[in-house]
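S., here's the first fold you wanted:
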Amino acid sequence: MRSILPFVFRRLVLCPLLALPLLAQPVPSTAAPLLADPAAYVAREFGSSFKLDPKVPPMFGDLDGDGTQDVVLVGRSNSPLTAQEQMAFKVEDPYDAYFGTGDPRITSQFTLHFDGSARCILIVFDWRRPSQAKPKSKQVSKYVLINTPFETIGLVNLRLKRRSKIQKFQAIETVDRDTVHALIFWDGKRWRWRAQGMEGDETLMPPPR
């Protein structure tokens, strides 16, 4: 994964207040054998309408800061809402929500991927633990994020300042065809999207060096 630091530093000259929130430290990739059969896992957890993108290996990290390992995969589906209730996952659109229209029932009709692939980002919190064994606070532990434009994707380390406390966690970094670096991160209630050069969240901070 290409580092975002050169891009950030160029932007710092023009808009330093907006660049700071998206400074992040890339996370080294985790070995794929943690998930022996990613394609079968996607079908089991999200249903047959989702197909794994074999070009993107599974990514492992702690996206909600609870100390357990989560998994991020990239899949494809032309009907992401169909199995939402049956497979107990939630569809969100943080990209379009940033621009004011985040209802997946509407935005699932949009076409943002130039290759027509209908790619989705699939996330499972605490993926090693069976769904029925997860606490009630995590009854919804699987998410499908639609409409995020990207050419490359990876995980980065971040810190979030919340109620005067610093929480360490990881976020999804994407780079689209225009080389715009963006972060998708969990704020405790929903997924949010932020991009370099746009109005960001000043509670996001880079990890200490």
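And the second, which I think is the more interesting of the pair:
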Amino acid sequence: MLPQQENYPLARRLAVEGLLRSNLQERATRCGASYERGRDGEGMVGFRYLGRELRVSFPQGTIVTQNGQAPIPLREEILIFHYLERASGVPLAERWASFSEIPGGAFYHPVFLTRCKSPLMKFFGEEPENLLSVAEELRGEPLNLGDVGVRIQAFPFVPLALVLWRGDAEFAAEGSVLFDASVSEFLPVEDMVILAETVVWKLIKAGHRL
């Protein structure tokens, strides 16, 4: 579980220490990343996170973004380390699942609705077409689901689908954030909430620039 903000530095340190006790090359393979080992013994894991190319160096656990992009916030750093720790490398199920369908998701579903679905609907529900424009910020691609759908590759093995249905005189607008059914092999359920929340708010931030 991701910690409260005051415990972020400790959580980050523990995650890095856990990874250092593992086989980093094997970890990289299981999470769809590249691995390089320097002459000084430093390990370098590289992969894409929300459209950004990252390199994570060990033993320090330093996350470096490419092309002068802004640093990764500490909360997202912990999420990245948790992905590296948990990723099993199983193939994608190629089937979308709602959060409540994921093992453990029913327990956290009220939190998921409040922190992920509600902001998505509040901002994009009246103008769902805007979701397509802002999704480009995260290298999102159109998806043939709902009235407006986008697929966003959060991690190499963790895609998300954001889907909106337009409202009319009879029905209110509706929306959903979906995961590949294999997501439990790559993230704990608590981290799925954090990831979906992060994606939604990055899109909302981009939407304010329209």
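Why I say that: DSSP finds six helices and nine strands in the chain. The chain has two domains: 5-86, 96-207.

Talk tomorrow,
H.
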